[in-house]
């Protein structure tokens, strides 16, 4: 590191020494607790929903109550008390291991931070549909967009937000469409494109849009970025993990999914003797 860069580094450290800076807010004794310019006790408590504050903290914008209610509904859709789901397995295992509910829940949430399940896949869904929309508005046909994406996966319909690995269709999409209608929330351009992509996939592969595809398109139409969606949904699996912890905590220790050695299929080298030294 050059002397100039080293000096600049120390100047940055010194400018932040012994002081904590925040652009979000803080507690000022005798004055109140402030969040993005709002007085939390006066402006929020009993007046705004918890989910509205979650969105404010994640995006810096206080949303309309309808959007917050929609987010509450999607959180219900994305967290089930099913111990077969891998993040929930951690909650159940933690229960029979007699750990704390906090350790169980945060461990399950951390396990969901993956490319295959959880909030990161929602980020990927928004990235796909927003990029697809840019291609579409630039003149590319929907079929070309689908074919290009499928070509990345040897011609298979592995598009983020579409198809499901275990079952066909997704009952959660219908539930959220109904919820959006009841809230008076409109179908936008990204969602219309997602429906067109879905129709091509149905015709070619008998695969449809999953809840991630619906959610990603809906959020894109309502001005959310991929990173904002990721932040908002960072704890989306927490409730299901907690439920599986509670379900197993009173059972005997180490009784969740025990295995025999022969339950594991070994495909390595066969047993062999060590040579004499």
Description:
With 277 residues, this protein is mostly helical. Among the domains are: 25-63, no CATH class; 119-232, Cytochrome P450-Terp, domain 2 (Cytochrome p450-Terp, domain 2, Orthogonal Bundle). 55% of the residues lie in helices and 4% in strands. Strands 1-2-3 form a three-stranded antiparallel β-sheet. Helix 5 (86-96) runs parallel beside helix 13 (238-248), helix 7 (119-137) crosses helix 10 (189-205) and helix 10 runs antiparallel to helix 11. The protein starts with a helix and ends in a 29-residue tail after the last helix. The mean pLDDT is 94.
Fold blueprint:
Layout: H1 3-15, E1 25-28, E2 32-35, E3 38-39, H2 40-44, H3 50-59, H4 65-77, H5 86-96, H6 101-111, H7 119-137, H8 142-151, H9 171-183, H10 189-205, H11 211-221, H12 226-232, H13 238-248
Antiparallel strand pairs: 1-2, 2-3
């Amino acid at each position: 590191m050059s002397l100039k860069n080293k000096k600049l580094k120390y100047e940055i450290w010194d400018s932040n020494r012994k002081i904590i800076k925040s652009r979000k807010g803080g507690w000022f004794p005798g004055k109140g607790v402030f969040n993005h310019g709002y007085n939390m006790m006066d402006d929020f408590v009993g007046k705004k929903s918890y989910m509205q504050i979650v969105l404010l903290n994640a995006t810096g914008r206080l949303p309309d109550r309808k959007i917050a209610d929609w987010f509450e509904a999607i959180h219900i859709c994305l967290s089930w008390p099913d111990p077969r789901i891998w993040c929930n397995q951690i909650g159940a295992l933690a229960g029979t291991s007699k750990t704390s509910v906090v350790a169980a829940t945060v461990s399950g949430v951390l396990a969901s931070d993956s490319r295959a399940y959880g909030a990161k896949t929602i980020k990927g869904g928004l990235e796909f549909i927003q990029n697809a929309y840019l291609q579409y508005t630039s003149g590319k046909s929907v079929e070309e967009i689908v074919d290009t994406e499928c070509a990345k996966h040897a011609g298979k319909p592995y598009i983020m937000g579409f198809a499901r690995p275990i079952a066909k269709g997704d009952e959660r999409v219908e539930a959220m469409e109904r919820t959006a209608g009841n809230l008076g929330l409109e179908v936008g351009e990204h969602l219309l494109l997602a429906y067109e992509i879905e129709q091509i996939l149905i015709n070619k592969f008998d695969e449809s849009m999953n809840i991630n595809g619906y959610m990603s398109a809906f959020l894109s139409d309502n001005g959310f970025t991929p990173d904002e969606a990721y932040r908002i949904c960072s704890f989306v699996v927490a409730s299901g993990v907690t439920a599986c912890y509670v379900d197993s905590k009173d059972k005997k220790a180490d009784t969740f999914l025990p295995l025999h050695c022969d339950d594991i299929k070994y495909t390595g080298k066969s047993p062999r003797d060590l040579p004499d030294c």
